[in-house]
Specification:
The structure holds 2 protein chains of 2 kinds. Chain A is an all-alpha fold. Helix content of chain A is about 80%, strand content about 0%. Chain A is built from 10 helices and no strands. By secondary structure, chain B is an alpha/beta fold. Chain B has 10 helices and 10 strands. A 6-stranded mixed beta sheet of chain B has the order 6-7-8-3-9-10, sandwiched between helices. The chains are: A mainly alpha, B alpha/beta. Chains A and B meet through helix 7 and helix 8 of A and helix 3, strand 6 and helix 4 of B.
Amino acid sequence: MDGFLKIAPDIPHIAAGAWITLTLTAVAMTIGIVSGLVLVFVRSSRIPILSQAAVGWIEFFLLTPPLIHIIWAYYVLPIVTGWRLDAITVCAIALSASVGAHMAEVFRAGLQSIPKTQHRAAEVLGLSVIDKYRFIILPQTLRVILAPSTNVLVSLLKDTSLAAVIGLGEILHRAEVAASSNFLFLEILTFVAVLYAALNYPLIVLARKLEERSRQGFVSV
Amino acid sequence: MKEDARKKPFVSLRGVHKRFGDLLVLRGVDLQVAQGEVVVLIGRSGSGKSTLLNCVALLEQIEAGTIEVDGAVVGAGPADETALAPKTRRREVAAEIGMVFQSFNLFPHLTVLQNITLAPRRVRGVSSRNAEILALELLDRVGLREKANEYPVKLSGGQQQRVAIARALAMNPKVMLFDEVTSALDPELVGEVLKVMRQLAEEGMTMLVVTHEMRFAREVADRVIFMDQGVIVEDSAPSRIFTNPSTDEAARFLRVLMDAEAVE
């Protein structure tokens, strides 16, 4: 128990890393959602090369770990292309790509879960394709994807800790630096785990609230 | 007036073929429906009745033949593509066709009122106010005005189906297609839906109705059509088909249905 008192002086500095963690999460989630939508759209293209390219992109980022993308973009890219990106840019790009692929799958599953009969009912009323999606299909999809999207967001927030490997001063990196000088690894890493949980918990609560609210008007099948 | 209209059919199918993969569902259907006529389609499941309605509703692309509605060729197989009316005209006609489905298909995230007003507002450009006035009138007609602000999930099947009918009527259709609209309903709810349909028929709506409700067919239909394996086998007045069907298939099918009704 002593150890936990001894790390008190380090806590403010470590906790301040949360700003970088949260910024990175917000940026990667935003870009990920937009790129996920674009990927779903391109994937459903009638031009085979486009849809195949989208599938290839999605699967590459689903099947490979974001840690590799971060290391690759930070250390290998400069050697190959001569561009050197700073650590936060590298992390933002790598995590956005991963979130984009996951969100593309979430969107696809959500759209497929809307029964074909809803499309037919909208078509037979004469709604244009854009109106059909805007008023009928997407609002229903949104409710379906709320829970899986929250999962992506929660994973993302935890995955920002990968940025520590290239020395970005987010929570985990600051903790490692602190621990390597006072050797209180157990105490500091335990504190870090609690900090991540505290950051993620409101997201889960919010998602549950939204889900409850959106259940209104829905047939429970 | 009705005799004059009969000369020029409002809905006209010629040699319509439709396949799903290897399965040929419609194998050359010819059908003329005059304005104000109520035509009931009967037949076993898989005989192509529902597919026929979907083709008339322009929900399916046909492989051969032509579909003409209100004087415009709105559907054609590749061979007759040149006969198709211009796209804008086809869209106009499509909006004149109302359809009600077996599974209601109300939009679950919208209230009853929003379900009815959406298409008039977005497709016809009616103001929200006028669309609501129209929707409330229609809800009155189907006896559900007090449910205007409910979500579909709060309604019984019969109520949902009556809202679906009101939603279709809000587009002021010239022909209404009913695809087994009472089949998913509990028996005690069937009557309220049939009553609304009967009213519509009396008001002179052109109707194509797929149903197993033989009493409705007998009392409301001008013609009853029996389909078997993708073709029309028999097309006659209800008085005739129920008492003296001209084909064995129709006779056998009707006997089974009548027996079932007698048991009920």
